[in-house]
Amino acid sequence: MSYYRSLKGKNVLVSGASSGIGEACLNAFAREGANLIFCARSIEKLGKINEKLGVDKTFFGKVDVRDRDNVKRFIDSIPEELKKIDILVNNAGLALGLDKFYEGNFDDWDTMIDTNIKGLLYFSKYVANVMLSNGTNGHIINIGSIAGLGAYPNGAVYCATKAAVRVLTDGMRMDLVDKPIKVSNIAPGMTETNFSNTRFHGDHERAKKVYQGIKPLTAEDIAELVVFTAKLPEHVQIGELTVTPLHQSHSMVLYKENN
Description:
Number of strands: 11
Low-confidence stretches: none
Mean pLDDT: 95
Order of helices and strands: EHEHEHEHEHEEHHEHEEE
CATH class: Alpha Beta
Strand order of the largest sheet: 3-2-1-4-5-6-9
Oligomer: single chain
CATH topology: Rossmann fold
Number of domains: 1
Largest sheet: 7 strands, parallel
Structural class: alpha/beta
């Protein structure tokens, strides 16, 4: 008998699923035979992803996680056969700007705080209540960042949002300690996705330079760790899993070749 539990037939909800880690998580859970519920702001991208998943039972929708009512409507609209959510992956999140705090953009701050913190809370609260009402042995997996372990220059607000994710994860786990629901924080280091392109507001050249001279993690690396965390036996709970590329030991401690 395998040590790991099967995810076949489990209902998995992934936010921020239109690209990067979210899309990679969908592919990884699909290979495990899970049913998939997913959302993002781009319904067109989700439709294309859905066509490639090869999963019989899926449901997806356009959701802006910053909008509490939008999140609630999406969860309420999940078909009855998928209502019993087993796993939530809170992946929606982003960084905007790389400025000293006194030069920062207020709109960027609002977007990061509303997405990275409030959006995660909205999904966690609603889905936790679904799990509790269904008696589900559930699992909430938050995608944090090593930026949440300590600030770095010009990233105060983003780092603060990921520190909030880390502390919220701990608090959720405490509040659910007498319930059959696990809560985990996956904290990746440098991962090459659309992250830097988004941070630099579409400046592709600047984004590419971030990853020069180092082999970063990939979205698929993180997705495999999410699935690993989800497959552990019911009595085994990972509180936090921190992962970095080989040549990164801290947010700002890197070794880059030819640099």
